[in-house]
Specification:
The complex is a heterodimer of chains A (880) and B (106).
Chain A lengths: L1 H6 L4 H10 L3 H21 L1 H44 L1 H28 L12 E9 L4 E4 L6 H8 L3 E9 L3 E5 L2 E5 L2 E4 L3 H4 L4 E4 L10 E5 H8 L8 E4 L3 E9 L12 E4 L1 H5 L13 E7 L5 H7 L3 H13 L2 E8 L3 H4 L12 H28 L1 H13 L4 H38 L5 H4 L2 H27 L3 H5 L10 H34 L9 E5 L5 H4 L1 H9 L4 E7 L8 E7 L7 E8 L3 H6 L3 E4 L19 E5 H7 L4 H4 L3 E4 L6 E7 L14 E4 L7 E6 L4 H15 L8 E2 H6 L3 H35 L1 H9 L4 H35 L10 H27 L3 H7 L1
Parallel strand pairs in A: 6-11, 8-10, 17-22, 19-21
Antiparallel strand pairs in A: 1-2, 1-12, 1-13, 3-6, 3-12, 4-5, 4-9, 7-10, 8-11, 9-10, 14-23, 14-24, 15-23, 16-17, 16-20, 18-21, 19-22, 20-21
Helix pairs in contact in A: 3-4, 5-13, 5-15, 5-17, 5-27, 13-17, 13-19, 13-27, 15-17, 19-27, 19-29, 19-30, 27-30, 28-31, 29-30
Chain B lengths: L5 H13 L5 H12 L5 H14 L2 E8 L7 E7 L1 H17 L2 H6 L2
The chains are: A alpha+beta (880), B alpha+beta (106).
C-alpha cells in the first residue's frame, strides 16, 4: 500500500485534466498508461525529465482526446436531443409553462438591464471622460450648508490660468426660455445655453455642419441641434443663416450638432457663444458669488482630481475672502466626475433632474425576481416529474452511463429549454418594445438588441438561467440508485415533496414582495396627489409672459383685460409658480450678527396671488393693493416682506408674531426691509422635498407668469376666449398656457412611471408563480388519482376532497405572504425615506396582496382539484 | 469493404505485431517506432476507440499491475474481423504497389 501511494506520482492537476477528458474505464486506462511511462522515465532520467515528458505528452494528447470525445459525443447528443424533445412534446403543459415563464423572465431582465446599461452610460462617450469634471460649490454658513451644481462665472478662466493641471475649462450658463424667430417660424426654446468655445474641446458634441473649434469664438453666434435647425430651416443648410432671439438680436448659426446617440445630462437645442455676453461687458460674469455657471474642466492626463481639489480649498478666500468673512460664509469648490452626474448628483440648480438610482435598483431587483420565479417553476416541475425520468436515468446507469454524463445530459436539457425561451423572447421582444418604451420613457429599438453589449447580457442571462435552473434537478435525478429506481415499487412522488413546498413558498414570497411593493408605491403616489398642499392648485390656468416687459409695467391693466372674460374669476401675477424653480437669495436679519444668514427661496407676487391660491396667513397681514408702499418699485424705498413658517423656525423665533416688524436684508435689495406677515407653510414643491424657508416680495420687476382662475364649466369656450384675448394683447408672442395642477403633478411622473413598471412586473410575477402552481397541481392530481379513488370509495365527498387538496397549497401561499410582510415592510420603508413627506405603510397593503395571491392560487389549484376529485373511482382504480 | 484511416491501420498493425502484449504504452511505442514520429497517447486514442467500435479489436481488462500504480492494464486483441481487415490491407497494398513501381524507387 505504502509503495503504491508513493508510486502514483502523476501530478494531481494532470490527473484532473485526464478525468475531465476521459470517461469511465478510458480514464483508468489512460491514467495507467501515462503513469507507466512517467515512472519509467523518472526511474531512468530523473523526476524532472519525467515531469517534463508527462506534461508534453499530456498537452499533445489533449487534441486527440477532444476529437475522440466530440466524435463520440455527437452520437450521444443526437440521442439526448431526441429524448429531450420527446419529453418536451409528451409533457406539453410542463414545456409551455417552463418556456413561457422563462421567456417572460428573460425578456424582463434583458429590458431592464438594457435600461440600466443606458442609465449608467451617461456622459461616457466624451473622449477621455474620466478626466472631465464639473466643478461644483458648497456654500457653508453658520446655519446652513448648500451644494450648488453651478459656480461663479469667473472661476473657469481663473482655473485655466492658475492650475497647470487644468487642460481646458469652459462655462455653460442657462439662457432661460429664449424666443426664436426665423421668418414666420416663432417658438420658445427652453434648452438653450450660453457656452464658452472650449466646451466642445471638453465634451463631445459631434457637428454635422460648421467647425466646433471656431463656432463659438465670435459674439452673436449660435450652434443648433439638428432637430432645432430642421425646425427653422428645413432641409437647407443652417450655417450662415440668422436667428432673431427675444425679438431683438440677430444670431448667426455657426454649427449644427448631430443627434446624441449616447445619453448626456447636458441636453441642448442651442449653444449661444458666451462671447456675446462678454462683449456687452456683462457684470455678472465677474461675480464670484453667483451660482450660475456650470463649469466643466478637463485635466491633464497626469493630473489627479484629488490634488486639484486640495489646491482649490482656499481658492475663493484668496479672491473674495474679505467679503466672505463679512458674510460669515465659506465657499468650497469640489469636482464631480462627469459620468457620475446623471445618477449621483443631486445638487441645487441641476441642469436636469438626476436619474433615480434607487428606482433603478428596485427595477433590477424586480426583473431578477421574475426570472428567479420562472427558474423556480422549472425546478419545481422537474423534481415533480422525476418519477418519470428516474426510470430512464436508472436504465442509462445500468447500461454504463456515468453520473458525469447523465448530469451533462440533464443540464443540457435545461439549457435547451432556456435557449428556446431565449429565442421566443427575442422574437417576441419587438412586440414588447413599444410598450416598454412607453412605460420606461426610453426609445429602444430592436437594433439596440443586436449590439454587443445587449447580446452579451442576453448570453449571460441565457447561461445563468439554464445552469441555475438545471443544477438542482440534475443533482437530484442523477443521485438515484438504479436498483431502487428500476423496482416497480419505487415512488418518487413522495420524493422532493418538501423541496416543492419550499419552492412554492419561495415563489409566492417573491411574488408578495412585488405586489406589496407595487401597492405601496401606488399608495405613496395617491398620498402625494391628495395631501393638502397648503394651497389650491385646481382651476388655475397659467400664462407665461415672456419676451415683453408688459406684465412688469402694466400688471393691473393686463389682469383686468383677462378678467373681462366672465368665466375667468381671478388673476394674479408672480415670478414663478408652485412646482417650478424659484429664485434664491441670501437673507439675514439686520439686528443679528452678520454671520447668521441663510440662503432662502424667493417668490415675487402681487396682492391677489395669496387669495387666488388660498395661501393662508399665520400672523401679520398680506400685501395690500391699496398700500403703495407694499410694492417694491425701485431701490429707493425699503421693501416689505412676507416669510413662511419654516423661515420663522430657521430664524429661530419662538412664534410667528415675533418676526413681525423685524428688519430683513436680502441679496435682492440694497437696503433692509421689514417683515409684515407670516404665511402658513405650503408645499411649493412636490412632497418629495421638504418645505424650505421662503421669502416673498411684491416686486413686479420679476413678474413673468400670469395665473387665471377659471370656471370648469364651459372650459373649451373659456380657453378659446383666453387665447383670443392673449392674441389681442400680445400679437407677437405665441400662446403657451397650461394647467397648474397638471404641471405640478409632473413632479410625480417618475414615480408614476416606476409604478406602472412595478405593476406590470408584479402581475407577471404572480402569473408565472400561478403557472407553476397550476403545473404542480395538475401533476399532483394525476399522481394521486388512486388516493382520491380510495378516499371516494371510503365515502369522501368530491367537494371535501377538492378542499383538502386546495388547502395544502393555500397554506403554503399564506405562509409565503406572512414571511414576505416584514421584508417588504423594511425595503419599502427604505424607499419611502426618499420622500420628505410620505405615508405610513398601511396593514391593508399586506392584506390586499395576500388576498390577491390567495385568490389567484385558489382559482388555479381549485379547478384542478375539483376535476381530480370529480372522477369516477371505478375508472381510476381500474387503471392502477 | 470497410476502409480504415491511416492511423487506424497503423494501430491495427501494431496490435497484431504486439500479439499478447498490446496495451496503450506498447502500442504507442510500436507506432512511434514504425513511423519514426512522436505519437502521443491522445493520437492513438481515437483510432483505438474507432477500431474497438468497428469490432476489429477487443479491449480486455487485465490484472492490476504495479507498473500502472495498481490499476488494471487494458489489453487489445485482434478479432477475426480485425484479422480479415489486415488481410484486406495487405491485398490492397499488393495491388497498388506493383513490382514495377517498387523497382522505380530502388
Amino acid at each position: 500500500m505504502k509503495s503504491r501511494a508513493r508510486n502514483s506520482g502523476v501530478p494531481l492537476l494532470g490527473k484532473a485534466l485526464l478525468w475531465l477528458f476521459l470517461d469511465g474505464s478510458d480514464f483508468e486506462e489512460g491514467l495507467g498508461n501515462f503513469e507507466e511511462r512517467y515512472k519509467a522515465i523518472c526511474a531512468e532520467e530523473g523526476t524532472f525529465r519525467g515531469l517534463a515528458d508527462f506534461w508534453a505528452m499530456l498537452l499533445r494528447s489533449l487534441p486527440g482526446f477532444v476529437a475522440a470525445k466530440i466524435a463520440w459525443r455527437s452520437q450521444m447528443i443526437r440521442n439526448y436531443l431526441k429524448i429531450a424533445f420527446r419529453h418536451m412534446w409528451k409533457q406539453k403543459v410542463f414545456t409551455a409553462i417552463t418556456i413561457g415563464g422563462l421567456t417572460a423572465g428573460i425578456v424582463c431582465c434583458l429590458l431592464i438591464f438594457m435600461y440600466v446599461a443606458r442609465e449608467t452610460s451617461y456622459d461616457r462617450h466624451h473622449p477621455g471622460y474620466d478626466r472631465v469634471f464639473r466643478v461644483a460649490e458648497e456654500i457653508k454658513s453658520a446655519s446652513s450648508v448648500r451644494m450648488f451644481a453651478a459656480v461663479g462665472a469667473p472661476l473657469a478662466p481663473a482655473l485655466k490660468t492658475e492650475f497647470p493641471e487644468v487642460e481646458e475649462a469652459a462655462r455653460v450658463l442657462r439662457a432661460r426660455n429664449k424666443f426664436f424667430e426665423v421668418g414666420v417660424k416663432k417658438f420658445y426654446e427652453t434648452r438653450v445655453f450660453f457656452a464658452d468655445e472650449a466646451l466642445f474641446r471638453i465634451l463631445s458634441f459631434p457637428f454635422l455642419e460648421g467647425d466646433p473649434r471656431t463656432a463659438l469664438t465670435r459674439p452673436n453666434t449660435i450652434v443648433l441641434s439638428r432637430e432645432t435647425a430642421r425646425k427653422y430651416f428645413g432641409a437647407a443648410p443652417a450655417v450662415g443663416q440668422t436667428v432673431k432671439v427675444d425679438g431683438q438680436d440677430l444670431f448667426e448659426v455657426t454649427g449644427v450638432m448631430r443627434e446624441m446617440t449616447s445619453p448626456t445630462h447636458l441636453k441642448a437645442d442651442g449653444f449661444i457663444s458666451l462671447e456675446t455676453r462678454r462683449k456687452l461687458s456683462d457684470r455678472s460674469l465677474e461675480n464670484w458669488h453667483s451660482t450660475t455657471a456650470f463649469t466643466y474642466i478637463k485635466l491633464n492626463p497626469a493630473a489627479g482630481a484629488a490634488s486639484l481639489e486640495r489646491g482649490l480649498a482656499g481658492f475663493a478666500d484668496r479672491r473674495v475672502g474679505e467679503q466672505l468673512k463679512a458674510w460669515g460664509q465659506v465657499y468650497r469648490y469640489f469636482l464631480q466626475p462627469v459620468a457620475d452626474i446623471h445618477l449621483k448628483s443631486k445638487l441645487i440648480n441641476e441642469i436636469e433632474p438626476a436619474g433615480n438610482a434607487g428606482a433603478l435598483a428596485l427595477l433590477t431587483a424586480a426583473a431578477v425576481l421574475i426570472l428567479v420565479i420562472a427558474g423556480l417553476n422549472f425546478i419545481g416541475l422537474s423534481t415533480a416529474r422525476s418519477a418519470r425520468r428516474a426510470r430512464e436515468i436508472g436504465l442509462r446507469k445500468v447500461v454504463g452511463a456515468e453520473r458525469k454524463q447523465l448530469f451533462g445530459q440533464l443540464m443540457g436539457e435545461s439549457v435547451l429549454l432556456t435557449s428556446l425561451a431565449t429565442v421566443v423572447g427575442i422574437l417576441g421582444l419587438q412586440y414588447f418594445l413599444p410598450a416598454f418604451n412607453r412605460l420606461a420613457g426610453t426609445a429602444f429599438s430592436f437594433s439596440d438588441l443586436l449590439q454587443i453589449r445587449s447580446l452579451m447580457i442576453l448570453a449571460g442571462l441565457w447561461l445563468a438561467t439554464g445552469v441555475g435552473a438545471g443544477l438542482f434537478p440534475a443533482v437530484v435525478l442523477t443521485s438515484f440508485k438504479p436498483a431502487a429506481v428500476l423496482k416497480r415499487s419505487f415512488q418518487t412522488t413522495r420524493f422532493g415533496a418538501g423541496t416543492r413546498k419550499v419552492l412554492i413558498v419561495g415563489q409566492f414570497f417573491l411574488a408578495a414582495l412585488l405586489t406589496t411593493g407595487t401597492i405601496v408605491i401606488l399608495g405613496q403616489i395617491q398620498f402625494m396627489k391628495t395631501r393638502d398642499l397648503g394651497f389650491s392648485k385646481e382651476q388655475k390656468l397659467i400664462l407665461p409672459v415672456r419676451g415683453t416687459r408688459d406684465l412688469k409695467t402694466r400688471t393691473e391693466e393686463i389682469k383686468a383685460a383677462f378678467l373681462e372674460i366672465p368665466s375667468v374669476t381671478g388673476a394674479a401675477a408672480s415670478s414663478s409658480l408652485p412646482g417650478r424653480s424659484l429664485l434664491g437669495f441670501n437673507v439675514h436679519l439686520v439686528d443679528q450678527a452678520a454671520d447668521r444668514n441663510w440662503a432662502m427661496d424667493y417668490l415675487c407676487f402681487d396682492p391677489d396671488f395669496p387669495t387666488l391660491y388660498d395661501i393662508r396667513m399665520a400672523a401679520g397681514r398680506p400685501f395690500r393693493g391699496d398700500m403703495a408702499t407694499d410694492m417694491t418699485r425701485n431701490s429707493e424705498q425699503p421693501p416689505v416682506y412676507l416669510v413662511n413658517e419654516t423661515a420663522i423656525r430657521t430664524f429661530g423665533f419662538a412664534s410667528a408674531e415675533e418676526a413681525l416688524g423685524r428688519p430683513l436684508m436680502t441679496g435682492n435689495g440694497s437696503r433692509p426691509g421689514t417683515i409684515i406677515g407670516v404665511v402658513r407653510d405650503f408645499h411649493y414643491f412636490g412632497l418629495q422635498q421638504k418645505i424650505d424657508p421662503l421669502v416673498m416680495e411684491w416686486s413686479p420687476d420679476y413678474f413673468g407668469n400670469l395665473t387665471l382662475r377659471i370656471q370648469t364649466t364651459g372650459l373649451k369656450d373659456t380657453l378659446a376666449a383666453v387665447e383670443r384675448k392673449w392674441n389681442q394683447l400680445f400679437p407677437q408672442i405665441p400662446y403657451a398656457g397650461y394647467f397648474l395642477d397638471e404641471d405640478f403633478d409632473k413632479q410625480y411622473a417618475a414615480d408614476e412611471r416606476l409604478w406602472t413598471i412595478a405593476r406590470a412586473f408584479s402581475i407577471l410575477g404572480i402569473a408565472i408563480s400561478c403557472l407553476g402552481l397550476f403545473g404542480l397541481a395538475a401533476f399532483m392530481a394525476e399522481q394521486r388519482t388512486r388516493e382520491i379513488g380510495i378516499r371516494k370509495v371510503l365515502g369522501a365527498a368530491s367537494s371535501g376532497l377538492a378542499l383538502h387538496f386546495t388547502g395544502d397549497f393555500v397554506r403554503l401561499v399564506l405562509l409565503a405572504n406572512l414571511l414576505a410582510a416584514p421584508v417588504t415592510w423594511g425595503i419599502m420603508n427604505l424607499w419611502l425615506r426618499g420622500y420628505a413627506y410620505h405615508m405610513k405603510i398601511p396593514p391593508g397593503a399586506f392584506l390586499l396582496s395576500a388576498v390577491l395571491s390567495l385568490g389567484v392560487a385558489v382559482l388555479t389549484v381549485g379547478g384542478q382539484s375539483l376535476r381530480a376529485a370529480g372522477t369516477d373511482p371505478a375508472v381510476t382504480l381500474k387503471i392502477e | 469493404m470497410n476502409l480504415l484511416s491511416r492511423s487506424e491501420e497503423l494501430v491495427l498493425v501494431a496490435i497484431w505485431k504486439l500479439a499478447e502484449n498490446a496495451y496503450g504504452v506498447t502500442i504507442r511505442d510500436r507506432v512511434s517506432a514504425d513511423t519514426g514520429a512522436l505519437w502521443s497517447f491522445g493520437a492513438i486514442y481515437k483510432p483505438l476507440k474507432q477500431l474497438d467500435h468497428k469490432g476489429f479489436v477487443e479491449k480486455i481488462p487485465g490484472a492490476p499491475s504495479s507498473e500502472q500504480g495498481g490499476r488494471r492494464k487494458f489489453y487489445y486483441r485482434l478479432t477475426p474481423d480485425g484479422r480479415a481487415a489486415l488481410k484486406d490491407i495487405r491485398k490492397i497494398y499488393r495491388a497498388v504497389w506493383t513490382k514495377d513501381l517498387e523497382r522505380s524507387f530502388e
